[in-house]
Every structure is written in structure tokens, then in C-alpha cells.
Design a protein that fits this description.
The protein is built from 17 helices and no strands. With 354 residues, it is mainly alpha-helical.
Length: 354
């Protein structure tokens, strides 16, 4: 397959990375505007949050399968973005429909754009890490605007429309969905299960850890920047220095900073930077063990994120999970799972050639 040019890589990552931030900002803005404006009851809002997350993260594997089957990543990204735009327009008079549109649109967009970005640097962690990273910034901006009652749809719609136009102009990378679909990877079930556990725990820790200073706006911004940089640089460093060293090493280094330094914003922010560097590594591992099915693989990782996040929605679980010794134990389990999965991964002859 023809190697993707640097220009194509840069243009696609720029456009889809910005779209990722805008889409996530609009989804968060819609959801939290519904809460701020009291368009539904408190219990109904809680149910809508659950519904949104199930649609946004739980359906990605299914839509990823469809995207792979019909080779429609760009169409998926555009269609998903349009659905999110419709949610932003309709939330004030149809909140339930808007949440459904936002959840479906988020899932469909993420898979489509994810497939494109995973295939910019095939089998490498760099591009998917850069693509995923801006989402955290978008969520932060949308949440702040929504909770403050300041979310206005039209500026986001204007930016999103321009970005959709750019997707039709830039060159899409070649995607070989038939690439070695029949290859048998030794230990595939173990690799998938262990990486899945690592992702679930990372999501659980990220949602449950108690950082009492994060409500301060300046500290919140610094935290989000650290998360964005961690995800974005994690894949680049991993490809340069090795997935095992970076993935396991950064998780291990994050332990004392997050477990014993959570009350100190400067210490914990560094810990969150390190903690998030494993994200593109786990994503590319799952992608590589499902050759030719990058959409399905991307969706599986997002389903794992959902499983990890759900317990944190319930106060009684969140209080227990936020205990520092629970955080310590969880990160250790995540490290062990990732370490063993990578050891099995490197033993397979097909995967050794990637």
C-alpha cells in the first residue's frame, strides 16, 4: 500500500483533530445546557446523561463494523458531525431528542474520523494519539459554557461547517480493509482481554479520582492541557522509545503523583499527564490485533471507556473508588495487565512485523 505523505497526515490530523474538539464541545454544551436551563427534572437529566454515554460510547463498535464493511469513514465523520449540529440547534425545545442526536452523532463521527487517523500512520500510535487528544479540550470548553448558561450554537456550527467542507478537500489516506483479515494472532483473546482491563481501569480512575482543586478555573485549564498533551505526546513517544517502556513506565511514574499527591495541583497535573500517555498505545494495540478492522477496534476501546466510567455516575460507588488505596490498586492492576498483554503481543510473528 502506498505510504501516506506528510502533507496528507498533517492536513487530516489538523482537520479531524479540530472537528473532534468542536464535536465534543457541542455535545457537552448541549447536555449541560439542558441541566442549566432545567429543561428536564434532575432525575430525567441523570437518565439522559446515562443515555448519552451509552449511545456515544456503547454503539461505536457496531458502527465501526459498518464503517469497515462499507468503507465509509469520511461519510461517517460528516454524518456524525451533522447529527451533533442538529442536536445543538434543537436542545432548547426538544432536549431528549437532542441528547439522542448528540450521542448518536458523537459515536458515528468518532468512528469515522478515528478510522482515517488510525490509517494515517498504519500500525503506529502517533496519529491516533494526536487525533484523540483535542477531545478533552472540547469537553472542557463545552462543559464550562453549558454549566454557565453561555453555550451558543451558531459559532460552533459555523466552525463545524467549515471543517466539514475541508474534509471534502483534503486527501483521504488509503485504507486496506482486507489486509490479512484471516491471519491468526497467537494469544489474541488474552491480548484483547488484558488491554480491555487496562482501558476500563484507566477510565475508572480518571473518572473517580478526587482532585479537590479542579474546580478552580486556572487549575482546571492546566489539568486539561496536561491531559491533551499526555494523549497527544504519548503515541509519539511510544513509537520513538517503545510501547512497553512508555506505556508501563508512565503509568508506574504516575502512581505516587496521583495517589499521594492528589491534593497538590502541580504534582497531580504532572501525574495526569503521565497517566494519559498510555491511551494511544492501548488503542493501537487493539487496532493491530484486528487488521483491516480499524473502526471496530476503535469502537471496542470506547466501549471499554464506557464500562470504566459507568460506576462513577453513582455517588455511592464514586466515594469508594476515589479512596487513594483503591486508586493505587487499580493503577497497579492496569500496569500488570498492560505489561502482560504487550509481552504476549511481541511474541506473535505477525505482530513482530508491524
Amino acid at each position: 500500500m502506498k505510504k501516506t505523505s506528510s502533507r496528507t497526515i498533517f492536513s487530516n490530523l489538523s482537520v479531524y483533530g479540530m472537528m473532534h474538539a468542536v464535536v465534543d464541545a457541542m455535545c457537552a454544551g448541549v447536555v449541560f445546557s439542558i441541566f442549566k436551563d432545567q429543561l428536564v427534572s434532575a432525575q430525567d437529566f441523570f437518565n439522559l446523561v446515562i443515555l448519552y454515554n451509552v449511545l456515544a460510547f456503547g454503539l461505536q463498535a457496531l458502527w465501526g463494523f459498518i464503517t469497515d464493511r462499507f468503507d465509509i469513514p469520511r461519510t461517517s465523520a460528516i454524518f456524525g458531525a451533522i447529527l451533533v449540529g442538529m442536536a445543538a440547534i434543537s436542545f432548547s425545545y426538544a432536549p431528549i431528542a437532542a441528547v439522542i442526536l448528540a450521542g448518536l452523532g458523537n459515536a458515528i463521527f468518532h468512528v469515522g474520523a478515528g478510522v482515517i487517523c488510525l490509517n494515517l500512520t498504519p500500525k503506529k500510535a502517533s496519529a491516533p494519539g494526536v487525533y484523540v487528544a483535542p477531545g478533552a479540550l472540547g469537553l472542557f470548553v463545552g462543559t464550562i459554557l453549558g454549566k454557565g448558561g453561555n453555550f451558543v450554537a451558531w459559532p460552533f456550527l459555523a466552525i463545524l461547517t467549515f471543517l466539514i467542507f475541508l474534509t471534502s478537500v483534503i486527501t483521504r489516506p488509503e485504507i486496506d480493509h482486507d489486509q490479512k483479515k484471516e491471519v491468526r494472532i497467537n494469544g489474541l483473546e488474552w491480548i484483547l482481554s488484558l488491554v480491555f482491563v487496562s482501558v476500563v481501569i484507566r477510565s475508572l480512575v480518571g473518572m473517580s479520582i478526587i482532585l479537590p482543586w479542579r474546580t478552580d478555573l486556572s487549575m482546571g485549564i492546566a489539568l486539561v492541557v496536561a491531559i491533551v498533551l499526555g494523549k497527544g505526546l504519548g503515541g509519539i513517544f511510544a513509537d520513538r522509545f517503545g510501547w512497553l517502556k512508555v506505556g508501563v513506565g508512565t503509568l508506574a511514574l504516575s502512581i505516587p503523583l496521583l495517589v499521594f499527591g492528589a491534593n497538590n495541583p502541580y504534582v497531580a497535573i504532572i501525574g495526569m499527564f503521565l497517566f494519559n500517555m498510555t491511551m494511544p498505545i492501548t488503542l493501537i494495540i487493539i487496532s493491530n490485533i484486528f487488521p483491516g478492522r480499524t473502526g471496530f477496534a476503535f469502537g471496542l476501546t470506547c466501549f471499554a471507556l464506557l464500562l470504566g466510567a459507568v460506576p462513577s455516575f453513582f455517588v455511592e460507588f464514586r466515594e469508594v473508588l476515589g479512596n487513594q488505596w483503591m486508586i493505587l490498586s487499580a493503577i497497579i492492576v492496569s500496569i500488570v495487565s498492560l505489561y502482560i498483554s504487550l509481552k504476549i503481543y511481541y511474541k506473535d510473528k505477525y505482530l513482530q512485523g508491524l
